[in-house]
Amino acid sequence: MSKARVVRFGSREIITEGLNLSFWADVSHRCMTASWPAFIGGAAFVFVAFNAFFALFYWLSDQPIANVRGGEYIDYLYFSIETLSTAGYGDMHPQTHYGHFIATIELFTGIFSMSLMTGLIFARFSRPSARLLFADNPVISNHEGQPTLMIRVANERHNIISNANARLWLFKNAVSKEGQSYRRFYELPLLRSESPALALSWTLFHIIDQSSPLDGLDAAGLKAIGATLIVVVSGYDVVAAQTVHARKTYDHPDILLGHRYAEILDTADDGRLRIDYSRFHATSEG
């Protein structure tokens, strides 16, 4: 059984245990999700371990490599590094059938491992990412005379994300007729869920009417049901020529009732529109 893990879902922490999953069962996913320092450190460790392994085989034989003075292990380690990386400086070379055999295996392993490492590094660099900025807090206040849940989003890169789509879900605690507790989710319809070109800012609106699962809930009601909001925005990044996705999770303490977002749009002296992102997260009562 694998060790217990803590999975973060917004500010909620969930402990998972009892899963029969070994480290090697999903090593590709681990390489893709590890931080850059951990990934580089792991790659360096594997590189050193491979070379130390092959250097041991060279060292155990009787002078399989030419120009190794005294047959010291460190020299065989240097030769292994040159062979595994296919550098081959030429001052040391195999001189016995045994040496050629081990070098052949190491060369094949080096070509395979370098190709694999190149693919992993390319995959990490080429993953599409959206630099979308989400407001720190959703707000609930009147909009067009109706109570409305609002979430503000901005494109930090200021490039065009065409055909942008947004979806919003509410997760809450529920109890079945048999008395079993579970988490239930509802998709909250948005007043406008599509944007032809997201380049600056976008405010999502969900009207809280009688059909909304948020109808009649105050701060205590949101806490009682363990409300969690998840917003997902996706679209086509015209610069990267890839579809990008971004997600933000809010828990019930993040939702500000009776607040509205501060105005960030203004007109400059020359008549051009100006957006003040320093007030992007600011809210006020009203």
Q: Secondary-structure blueprint of this entry?
A:
Blueprint: E1 5-9, E2 12-16, H1 27-33, H2 36-60, E3 65-66, H3 73-84, E4 93-94, H4 97-126, E5 132-134, E6 139-143, E7 146-155, E8 161-175, E9 181-188, E10 194-198, E11 201-207, H5 219-224, E12 228-237, E13 242-251, E14 256-257, E15 259-261, E16 265-267, E17 273-275, E18 283-285
Parallel strand pairs: 6-14
Antiparallel strand pairs: 1-2, 3-4, 5-7, 6-7, 7-11, 8-9, 8-10, 8-12, 12-13, 15-18, 16-17
Helix pairs in contact: 2-3, 2-4
Structure description:
This protein has 286 residues and is α+β, with helices and mostly antiparallel strands. 28% of the residues lie in helices and 35% in strands. The chain contains five helices and 18 strands. The strands form six sheets. Strands 5, 6, 7, 11 and 14 form a five-stranded mixed β-sheet that branches. β6 and β7 form a beta hairpin. α2 crosses α3 and α2 packs antiparallel against α4. The protein is elongated.
Continuous helix count:
5
Shape from CA axes?
elongated
Helix content: 25-40%
Mean pLDDT across residues: 88
Alpha carbon gap, first and last residue: 53 Å
Order of helices and strands: EEHHEHEHEEEEEEEHEEEEEEE
**Sheet of most strands:** 5 strands, mixed
| Beta-strand share of residues | 35-45%
Q: Which oligomeric state applies?
A: single chain
Structural class: alpha+beta
| Extended strand count | 18
Radius of gyration, Cα only, in angstroms?
Answer: 29 Å
Low-confidence stretches: none
